[in-house]
Structure prediction request, 170 residues.
Amino acid sequence: MGGRLSRVFRTFNVESRASREISKEKPTPAPRHRTSRLDQLAGHSEIQEEIYRKDDRLLTLLKDVYVESRDPPVQVKDGGGEHLPCKQEEKRLTKLGHLRELDVQKVHKGKISIVEAVMLLNNHRLHPQIWTAEKIAVEYSLELKDVNCLLEFFVPFTVQEFPKETKKAI
Prediction:
């Protein structure tokens, strides 16, 4: 009810109020400070000459300046025949799941991919006497304490279907 009443007052005589505001004279802007006008500088020819005049003393100083730049010679460090282990040597092939194209192909030793983690957790849940922590550590090149923590704190999702209730039970 209050909205209707306020709308009536808001829209009352809108056209005449709008035309009255439009027909008013626009207020004149405040005068600007005389030093802020750039067109005054254009009138003074002495200032323009000073701006565009070349200073011979500065030009001679500028001609004396000579800059020469050279890149330092590139030095290649020779390892002296030492071969450091390459990270590619530390990778192992993954035990791929059913999404072979989307799975990660190589993983660093001591780490596992998500697909492998789900597979080993599911295998341990289904057959804990076969897939022990020691066997998982050997199979996936992991440390035993990491595998024990993984099996203790992570559990794969399980889908449980409950029987549909009858109408009488509801």
